[in-house]
Amino acid sequence: MAVYNRRVPSWTVPPDSAGIRLDKFLAAPDRLGSRGRAADALEKDKVFLNGAEVGRAQAARRLRAGDEVRVWLDRPGTARGRPVARAGDLEILFEDKSLIVVNKPAGLLAVPLARRSDAPSAYDCLDNHLRPRGRRRPLVVHRIDRDTSGLVVFAKDVRAQQALKAQFRRRTPERVYRAVLYGHPQPPQGTWRDRLVWDAGALLQKRAHPDEARATTAISHYRVLETLAGASLVEIRLETGKRNQIRVQARLHGHMLVGERLYVRRGAERPIDFPRQALHAYRLSFEHPADGRPLTFEAPMPDDLEALLARLRAPSDTRI
Fold first, then answer.
1. What is the pLDDT of residues 131-155, one digit of tens each?
2. Residue 207, domain member (yes or no)
């Protein structure tokens, strides 16, 4: 069955198609429609298998039941996780007169905080990037936590900022994260739905009391991508966008993020050593604020998370 999300079609391989070549699967009449279109999509790096980019060399790869095949028909040439420029510690993946999409490293604030005025931020990096060219300062659209890596979009004018913020309020952007969680969620695919309230004194989200008037609903859809030693690599798609949403919901549902320091159950064991929450803003899709065309970006997993995954895949006698 095909699922269209932000005009980016994806298909889950049914059991009766197990073993079929990737290019033949794509060429079916109800997908891309011809071998030529399938070959062109693979040649232009528009095809992703289970979230990983695949090209012409993988055309003959045999598919398994449950594999997800995605094609970015209108994929911008700069959306491949390869920077077109740098601004300090930031990789700039896309920039035009309306917006900038960046890949933020862990440890860097997305925007300045009043209580940490001396701490560097992605905003500061972009301000330094734009100022020598006489451009306006970047305008904040959304943010991710300091120790979360991945995609953030900034606007370059007020009209673009307002249009992008309106999309986020309507929950139309696709925001997909990759996380390493303790344990193995069951079922391996599902939805977390919780009533949360922000504790301004403790600066964290809490599960709300049933009578709490300030409570709001947080919804995340998760899918286990890989089972690891004592942990799982999980893809999480936000339906709502509360502060620290994934971090608190993972804890509430018994699968705390590896490396988590804030949302930790009292007495919980943390046998996997990792210096930050293992969370990465992996995919971001939205409509361009000026002309409405769909834009989709992906940021590859950073080196520290790749090293963590390699460690958790290693045989138990070599794992450290």
1. 877 667 899 999 999 999 999 999 9
2. yes
| Whether 145 is catalytic | yes
> Is residue 63, in this structure, part of any structural domain at all?
yes
Residue 24 host element (H or E): helix 22-26
DSSP 184-214: --SSSEEEEEEEEEEETTTTEEEEPPTT-TT
Assign residue 88 a region: left if phi > 0, alpha if psi is -120 to 50, beta otherwise?
left
> What residues does 86 pair with on adjacent strands?
91
Using a 10 angstrom Cβ sphere, with 0-12 exposed, 13-18 middle and 19 or more buried, the burial of residue 188 is middle
Would 95 be classed as within a structural domain? no
What does the alpha-carbon distance between residue 138 and residue 35 come to, in Å, rounded to a whole number? 44
Q: Of the residues 23, 124, 127, 145, which is catalytic?
A: 145
Cβ contact 229:316 at 8 Å: yes
Domain of residue 19 covers 2-71
List the CATH number of the domain containing 186.
Answer: 3.30.2350.10
Q: Collect all residues with Cβ–Cβ distance below 8 Å to 126 and sequence separation of at least 6.
A: 87, 90, 100, 102, 138, 154
Distance of CA 3 to the CA centre of its chain: 18
Per-residue pLDDT of 53-102, as tens digits, reads: 788 878 889 999 988 898 887 655 434 556 777 888 899 999 999 999 99
pLDDT of residue 308: 95
Exposed/middle/buried for 142, CB within 10 Å: 0-12, 13-18, 19+? Answer: buried
Q: Is 12 inside a domain boundary?
A: yes
Q: Which residue positions in the chain have pLDDT lower than 50?
A: 1-6, 77-79, 318-320
